[in-house]
Every structure is written in structure tokens, then in C-alpha cells.
Request: fold
Amino acid sequence: MNPARILIVDDERVVCTGCEKILGEAGYQVKSTLSATKALDILKEEPFDIMITDLKMPELSGMELLKIIREMYPEIMVIVITGYSTVETAVEAMKLGAFDYLPKPFTSEEVSAVVNRSLDKRHQEREAKILRQEREKNLQEVTGEMQRIKTIINSMASGVLVIDRANHIIMSNPAATNMLGTKDTQLVGKLLSHYIKEDKLRQLKYGSDDFHSSGISAISIEFAIEDGGASRFLRAQATPVKSGVGKMLGAVIVLEDITSLKEIDRRKTDFLEIVAHELRAPLAAIAQQLMVVRDGLAGEITEKQREIIGRVKERSDSLLNLTSNLLELSKIEEGRVALTKEHLDLNELLLKVLDLFSAQAEARGVSLQFKGEKELPLVDADLSQIEMVCINLLSNGIKYNREGGIVKVKTGAEGEWVKIEVSDTGVGITPEDLDRVFDKFYRVNSEETRKVVGSGIGLSLAKRIIEMHAGRIEARSTFGKGSTFTFFLPRKDGISARTEGIK
Ligand code: ADP
Reply:
């Protein structure tokens, strides 16, 4: 580090030479002058860290010199020498910005001490200044960054809402306001239930609470918004926001307008409904005629012919089943299904469905297990629809299993929900396919699934049915190891009456 530079200004030569000697020997770079005006000339030429100046000088007094220095060279530390002046003069000089004063006569130790003090002070001030500048720079950067992010979010075509744990909106963008069809200009501070119906929201809210424990990364729901007499459809995808230590803070919801997609979907459904409807009657007639032939009512047939006709009948039954599923799905999608709700005991329903599948499971070498929660809360649901969901999930668990595999059905209560879990030890689903298994007609195209007969609508139908009941369904899987399908239905107040047969 360069030695500090010190300028001595005093009209008494002896003071100048004395100070020059003391400070020069202490390793400083020292210069001296007998007049204040000369001092100003020197300062124009070279920089100094400290100036030690007398107060009483001809031409320009030390006090005036001090004022000029504070204005022109604020970084220089000024020490005033007070000779015959009073203490008040020293105080006045300090008020004008002098760092310290040195009463005459002074010893060499006193000069060195005051210089050291002023250098320390100067160092501290410099450090503080650097810190201040850095802080200002950081603040500017943060503000700039926040502004940039805000601009990006505000120009997004998708709606963005950020909610806290209590479902208050804490941030929104103009696209979200547009999509929600609200006249409110300010969404921040409002409850999300102002804009999304309570029953739909429950699916998201449930998700928010459950994200943490279950490790779910995002939950998606679709809902309709009435906008000036016309319906628009939105898809909301909620992703949890967690603190550094994993505590749930809220969620980010991204909204997309899917009205046009829904319209295309509706036309496809209409077409499929016509096809399914037209196929149904001839298929039923074929099945009936086949029964007549198989049972020998149209004349004697050989054992081989009976076996072949049996296989044809099986295939035509599965086609008939497909048409039923298709018709059911289109009815649901068109909103033409009126649910006949009753108080259901899901333990009882599942035991019945498991019974239905026992022969099929045995034939495939798969064992069925049931673990029902005793005193399971009842649900308010449509028996035939929920039965269809359970049939689809169990049938998949067996179909996509392996010889010696297991399908486990578990029931339980979780907060305000009844939870049904169907897990298997089958072929599993890759993460990419898992995102799509609930899509209509989606089938995994792999070596192991290709040989399994299916249409790809069972799960999409199950999802629609569960959502019609204000519940939700989700899938988890480890490829090659097995899958778990879980659905949740809102609980009723009563509890399951039947506990016998529950393991
Ligand atoms: P499908 O009639 O083809 O079984 P689904 O809608 O029930 O139609 O299922 C869609 C696809 O998801 C299936 O084709 C299959 O690839 C996959 N899938 C469904 N359930 C399981 C399961 N338990 N294990 C592995 N894959 C499954």
C-alpha cells in the first residue's frame, strides 16, 4: 500500500520543517507550504490524504482554506493547528468539517497520534462508502430484476395467480383477470373462491395441503366460467410453493383457456357417440345369435366349433363393453348424466367388485388383497358410477400385472376425504406415460401392454366420474415395479356399518 500523503500548511517555517521531519521519519509522504493559496495550487497538481493547517495565516486564513477543501476535496482529512486561538475557534473548525485539532505547541507523539487517528477514520469512511455503494447497486439490481420478472409475467398469454396458504391471491397478471371474466381490477387480497367455485377449489385446496406429504408436484383441474351468457372452459394447474425448509407457503396457479380444445373434443365425442350407438344394436344381435349357435339351439356343433364360437363371443362382448363405455363417457361429457346419489359404503362396494374379479384374477395367477378401514366414513355418490370406476381400476391392476403378482385394495379416511387405493405389482408406467394415462384413448405402447386388450377410455371415464363427485384421482407408478391409483371422495357424516370381512 502506498504511504499516506500529508500536506502541511503553516506560515511558521519551523512548524513546517518540524512536522515534515516527524512524519517523514514515520514513513509518510510529506509536503509543506507557508501559505494557504500555495496550498491550493499544490492540491491542483497532486492528491493528498491529510492536510494539517494553521488557522492564522496572512492572505487566506486556515478557516477559509478549510471551507474550500471541504467543498473541493471532501475526501481529505483536515487537522487544524490552533496556536494562540481559543478553544472556540477549534470547535468552529470542527463544525466546518475538520477532523481534529492540534494545539500549539505539540510534541512529535501528538502529531503522529492525530495523523494515525485521522487515517483510521478515513479508512472507515472509505469502507462504509464502498459498502453503501454496493448495497445501492444490489438494491438497483434486485428492483430491476423484480421489474423484469413482473413485465414477463404481465405479458404472458397464460393467466398466473399466486395464492397463500389461506387461498388469498397475492399476485395476478392481466391474462388471469381476463380469463376469469371478472370486472375487478384488483385481484390481490381477494379469496380465490371469489373467482373459482368452491367445489372445484376444494380439489385444488386439498392438493395444496396434500402436496407436502404426498410429494405431488402439480394438480390440474378444468372448470367452466360464465362470461356474458357464453361458457368458457379453463384449465388451472396448481404447483406448490415451498420454503427452503420444505414448508408449504402457497401455490402458483397457471390458467389456460381451453374453450376451443373443448369444442373440438365435443365434436369428436358426438361422432363417437353416433358410431357407438350404431354399433351397439348389431353387436348385441351378433352376441345373441352366437349364444344360440354355441348352445346348440341351431343344431349340433362340435367341441372345437363351440370353443371358437366362445372366443368370438368373448371378443364381441368386449366390443359391446367398449360401446357402453363410449356412450357413458359422451353422456358425461355432454353433461347428460344425472347422478343418483345415495349414502355409499365403499368397503362394501369394493368387496363386491373384488368378488366379481376373483375368477379372472385366479386365471391370470394374480392374488387379490383387501385392507379396509374399519368404520370408514360413508360417501354421497352414485353407486353404478363408482362401481364402474372400481371395476376399471381393478381390471387394469389385473390386466397389467404379471403371473404371481398382487393387486391390493386399501380404503381409509383422510381429513374430509375417503381415500381408495388400488395398487399392483405389475408392469408399471413411465413418468412420461403417467402424465397421459387419464387422457381419452391413450394407451401405453410397449412390448408388455400391446398384448393386453383395451381401448384407453377406462381411466378417462374414471376421472370424469370422480370429478363429477367433486373428488379427484391420481396415479403413481414405478416403471417395471407397479402402479397405484388413488381416488378421493368427500366424506359424509355417517360411517361404514359393515366391518365384517374387512382384513
Ligand atoms: P385400457 O382399456 O387400455 O386399459 P385405460 O384408460 O384403463 O385403458 O388405461 C390407459 C392406459 O394406461 C392403458 O392402456 C395402460 O397402458 C395404462 N395403465 C392403466 N392402468 C395400468 C396399470 N395398473 N399398470 C400399468 N399400466 C396401466
In short: The mean pLDDT is 88. The longest strand covers residues 482-495. Residues 108-154 form the longest helix (47 residues).
